[in-house]
Amino acid sequence: EYNSAYQYHAWPNIPPYDANGKYFSTGSVPNMIQFHKEGGYRSRNIDDLWLTANAVLTPIKNVTFNIDYSTNFKFQDDLSTWRKLEMYFVDGSVSGYFPYTNPSQVTKSNSKTRYYTFNAFADYQNTFGKHNVHAMVGFNQENSTYQWFEARRDKLMVETMPYMNLAYGEKYTSDSASEFAIRGAFARLNYDYDNRYLFSATLRYDGSSRFGKNNLYGTFPAFSAGWRINNEDFAEKWIPFFSDLRLRAGWGQTGNQEISNSAIYSLYMANYAGGNPTWATSYGTAYDISGVGSGLLPSGFIATQTKNDDLKWETTTQTNLGLDFGVFNQKLTGSVDIYKKETKDLLVLPPYLAVIGEGGDRWVNGASMENKGIEVALGYTDKTSGGFGYEISGNFSMNRNKITELPQSVINNYGGNGTTDNILGRPIGSMYGYVADGLFRTQAEVDNSAAQQGKGLGRIRYADLNGDGMINEEDRTWIGNPNPGFMYGVNLNFSYKNFDLSTFWQGIGDVDVINSKKYQTDFWSVDDIGSNKGTRLLDAWSPQNPNSDIPALTTVDSNGESRFSSYYVENGSYLKLRVLQLGYSIPKNLLEQYKITNFRIYISAQNLLTIKSKSFTGIDPETPAFGYPLPLTFNFGVNFSL
């Protein structure tokens, strides 16, 4: 299937078809109109069965045994057919139109999925005077299997149903399968004394089939404690204005196992060449040792991944301290949290040196990183004697991230030059590239600058950071941080008599984004020459427009302006009005005669307003690349109950 939304990338000067009804295609972008009108047929059938069972036993007082079991069987069959489509292929490089035929095709696939989960735990609860105890121990296991098979025939002899089937044409088949299982035991204890002192402890022992036999299981403890200060005898005397005051502290570890089900295995693939044993053998495993090339060769295997029996859980350790409070009889409430989170043994699939050859892919435990920050939330609620009510709440958070450990095996996985200038001590995802130091505006600037292939008037000037008089890879540096320096949100809710108005604002600040749309809006040469372009190109540098910051038009990227540089890094800060809603509730005395409890009419808008940095040249800083901006949505609705 093709998404017609991608048609925006097609050449703007090429119509969908000519005067005789012949369809055009640019090759990389199919003719959507033809595909949708003449494409063919598609069907899907899904059988989905769920079975669940539960048993609860209370053999003795205060002790409960709970057993849960559920399983899911899912079978899916897909059939799609495409008739032969004839069109003109438009080759912009030679300014020609050539006949092009998309062959007819029939594809049939089926998949089978099975998933089951089993949980068993014992629960104990009791109270001894001012002591409250709640304890639990248990076991859980999950297992899932997946199988998929697809068969396809191309260049069919007959293009009418039901003759478009798998009996005729050139045949292709493929299949895949995977299995995953996790099991673990856990224990938890909650204790509080007089609703003043609270303590909790948990312990998990989990094993995942995604890890090597040497580190199959991981142990993850956690502890937390709390103190309800406002319940102390001295609170009423010394801090009477606090209606709620709680101090919290916690420490715990969690594990991450979100990787491929086959991450720990050595994998091999039998991959036939592209149908021609003479010239395509290097792309597959079919090889005739005699060199005759019969056209039908037995297949060998190539390695695609190397196993790692030592692969282990990615572990995150977090420590936090928090304070919750309420004053003026809970009119003003809030919380403050500070935390430090350390993640070790990040699960990664690093790139490998070409000299390793086939099978160089190998999952490993890579870098470690640290996050620390603060989160603040405040809210105020009140209502005047005149019937005007309002609620104002907001949150603010700051987080600082950095890589704290970088093993040699993954030094190239996180950016930098892979040797002396690496990401160690910097935020994850940091951007590495050239510094764009404006444009060459005069011939004197061109003559007196560092050696730079393709430099000239109107071209981007790159900074010579190491001062050696030439621009090369040694002049790259860290040019952006994609992690927001702070995030915030504000809710404003108002009510007066039967009317209500609510808004939600959300924003982020101090963040860098990559505006890759500039490849199309600012350049003619660095992207597909024949595709649509942005209107910013109309303001490109020229002798008549010497103050422009947009490079001069050219059809050849001799200056290497497609290289990643600070030219594409922009300020991604924004503030958005996410929700604006106005409602009216019909008075209850008018509803009683109709036996209606409540009846409310409302109208709302989403993504109504975006305030962004003036330096951001894209459409939406939240989706700065080729993602579509979030839509402006209006809703009208009615809520009622009888």
Describe this structure as you would to a colleague:
With 642 residues, this protein is mainly beta. It has a 17-stranded antiparallel beta sheet, with helices on one face. It has a 3-stranded mixed beta sheet with strand order 1-4-5. A hairpin with a 4-residue loop joins strand 4 and strand 5. It is globular. The N terminus is likely disordered.
Task: Summarize it.
The protein has 642 residues and is mainly beta.
| Binned strand content | over 45%
Globally, the shape reads globular
Described by strand count, sense and barrel closure, the largest sheet is:
17 strands, antiparallel
Computed CA radius of gyration, to the nearest angstrom: 32 Å
**Strand tally, please?**
30
Runs in which pLDDT lies below 50 for 5 or more consecutive residues are 1-8, 277-281
Helical content (DSSP H or I, runs of 4+): under 10%
